[in-house]
Amino acid sequence: MLCLILSLILTSQAQSPSSKPTLPTGSSESPKTTAKTGTQVYEEEENSTGKEADSKLKSLTAKVKVVRDDGEGREVFFTSDKVTGAFYLHRSVEHFGTLIKLLEESKKPMGQSVTIQYDDNQNIKSVKNTEARRNEDPNKKWDFGEVPP
Predict the structure, then answer these.
(1) Residue 125: what pLDDT?
(2) What is the pLDDT of residue 100?
(3) Is 37 a domain residue?
(4) Fewest CB atoms less than 10 Å from the CB: which of 1, 12, 74, 108?
(5) Domain range holding 94?
(6) Number of independent structural domains in the chain
(7) What global pTM score does this model have?
(8) DSSP for residue 120
């Protein structure tokens, strides 16, 4: 008997027309004009994140002091008066191995300074050598003189 009463109550509530969604008070817009399609929202997010990410990058040129291994990346410290603290290079950054190689070369006593680009959280996004020595021939440093006759 109880099951019959509960089923009648539940079916009557499901069939009542008062279950339609209503607009909040003070809103004169129809729901169709405020709703955006899924593709419009996705495209706006994609465009806004691309512009914000490029505009918020900062640049620093300095020599590397310490590169410390971490579980998810590397912590990097620089010898710079302008910016202090640890910078972080995630393993998910494109060309992670090449960037680590550039940082390690800068850490050596005769190493060149590097230019990095980083965001507000001091996450390194790119690393560049200030002076490209890679194409330099090491034999040009020495003067072998002339061969005697």
Answers:
(1) 92
(2) 92
(3) no
(4) 1
(5) 53-127
(6) 1
(7) 0.52
(8) T
DSSP class per residue in 14-57: HH-GGGS--PPTT--S-HHHH---HHHHHHHHHHHHHHHHHHT-
The strand pair at 58-69 and 73-79 is best described as: antiparallel
pLDDT recorded at residue 67: 92
Question: What are the mean pLDDT values of the chain's consecutive 10-residue runs (149 residues total)?
Answer: 78 60 51 57 58 71 90 89 87 90 90 90 89 64 75
Residue 25: C-alpha distances to residues 19, 28, 33, 34 (Å): 17, 8, 17, 15
- Residue 96 covered by a domain: yes
Q: What is the pLDDT of residue 9?
A: 80
The three-class DSSP label of residue 6 is helix
- For residues 78 and 124, the answer to whether their CB atoms sit within 8 Å is no
Give the H/E segment covering residue 97.
Answer: helix 96-107
pLDDT at residue number 134: 56
CATH code (residue 119)? 2.40.50
In one-letter notation, the amino acid at residue 55 is S
Residue found by looking up tokens 């809103």 in the block: 27
**Positive or negative torsion for Cα 109, 110, 113, 118:** negative
